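Q: I'm teaching a short session on how sequence maps to structure, and I want students to see two examples side by side rather than one. Could you give me a first protein with its sequence written out and its structure tokens following it? Keep the formatting plain so it prints cleanly on a handout.
A: Of course. Example one:
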Amino acid sequence: LPYAYLEVAFPSIKLSGCPVRMMAMTMLSASVIFAMGFKRLFRGGTRKPWLIALLLVILCFEYLPKAQTTTKIAIPEYVKVLKELPNHKGVIDMVSDFYVTMYYQTIHEKPMALGYISRRTRMTEERRKQILQLVNDRQFALLYLRYNFRYLISDDEFIKPSDKVPIKVVFDDGNVKIYDLGATWE
């Protein structure tokens, strides 16, 4: 029974605000109503076998599982390389948005910064700004030694050769680079 029809029949249900909360009661009520109707249908013998057959066909289609949409998400090469890199210290991904970054973390399985947080507290927001400021100021020793970040992922133009920062490039595909922040300070 679609919830929208139930709201039309019983307007007070709209007060619940979130239909999922009432779904158990909706299913229970629909089951009781269906059982009463089914009992009444069978009460005088099989006078209406076509109605019973129609009802069973409708129920079969009602309970067929909905086809799940599947999409193949292409995994960038740098995520595959990051998975193979040693050490499970932190990663700072400056290339991907934070939703995709969280998905990539399930692949490379390394701790990361700047990902999606459902509720940002003042302290986490301050820490996020500190990390971004250290990255922008090229303070890679602090990122490695104090904050325990080992890898920085950035686009090709983030660190130029003229910056003369003492960090090692472990992956470069022309668009994305992975820098090893700890190679110099170990």
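Q: Perfect. Now a second example for contrast.
A: Example two:
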Amino acid sequence: FEANDPAYLKLYRPVHENLLGTHLQTCVKRGGGDTISVILHDILRSGDLADKDTEEEIDKIQDKYLALENPTSQRNAYNRARHKALHSSGKRSQKHMSMRQHRHCGSLDFPKKYQKYDLYLSMHEMWKEYIADLLKNGRQKNIEYFLLTADLHGAILAVVESKIKSFTGVQGIMIRETLNTFGILTSENRFR
């Protein structure tokens, strides 16, 4: 720093002389050099590394960026808190995904290339064999139970009544079952 710099002219005179004297003494001892090297040398000489070779330590630190905070620990703490907030609303959230999570990961989407009625006709044939075996092995008393608990993937279903009027009358092969809905592929290759 310059002794005549306007920023330093207003300093109290003894402080100004002290700063200027320290800087000049250090620069003279080291044979000149830039201000950063001088400051590093002074810090290392008076700190914990005073007994070590300061020149070697200066070479390690000089011209390097030093992070004063640990951003990874802050990021990890943020991620842990976010994860805890997402999953702390009860046991249900740990076992099941919400509708928003389903939409986000695409688990409710059904790709167009698989929306072909002919692809699922063989599945319907397999379902007919499955239901025939189920009814043959079941006793006459428990036939209602067997029909209620039977897997309907591959069955041809018709929507008789629905809150959504456009779904009433839709007929097709059931290819997806969720808790409250059936996914039906119609003969016109439309997934409903």
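Q: What should students look for in example two?
A: Point them to this: The domain at 112-186 is CATH 2.30.30 (SH3 type barrels.). Also worth mentioning: The mean pLDDT is 73.
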